[in-house]
Write a structure and sequence with these properties.
The chain is α+β, with helices and mostly antiparallel strands. The chain is 43% helix and 18% strand. A hairpin with a 2-residue loop joins strand 1 (67-72) and strand 2. Zn(2+) binds at residues 54, 57, 80, 83. InterPro entries: RNP4, Rpr2/Snm1/Rpp21. One of its GO terms (molecular function) is ribonuclease P activity. Keywords: Cytoplasm, Endonuclease, Hydrolase, Metal-binding, Nuclease, tRNA processing, Zinc.
Length: 92
């Protein structure tokens, strides 16, 4: 675990705290910065974080506040309440 991955983890923690405090713009900035660091250092965003953020508007998804989570047969459907983007993830 290098310095970029530690910074990415910290930025996602800050984004989570910002969403709890209803500061969505600040959370977007944290997520965008974390993705930029991951891109620059070629380390990628961990899967646990990439599913918790909207790919279109970079907001941190929190069920009930900024995201809507629904279970369908064989998949999870996550919809962003900020931009309306939908992501579907398979599960067994």
């Amino acid at each position: 675990m290098g310095i970029p991955s530690e910074r990415i983890d910290r930025l996602f923690a800050l984004a989570r705290e910002a969403v709890v405090d209803d500061e969505y713009d600040r959370a977007r900035e944290y997520v965008a910065l974390a993705r930029r660091i991951a891109e620059r250092n070629r380390c990628g965003v961990p899967a646990e974080f990439s599913r918790k953020t909207c790919d279109d508007c970079d907001v941190y998804l929190r069920p009930g506040k900024t995201g809507r989570v629904r279970l369908r047969p064989g998949r999870v459907v996550v919809r962003c309440r900020e931009c309306g983007a939908t992501a579907r993830y398979p599960f067994d």
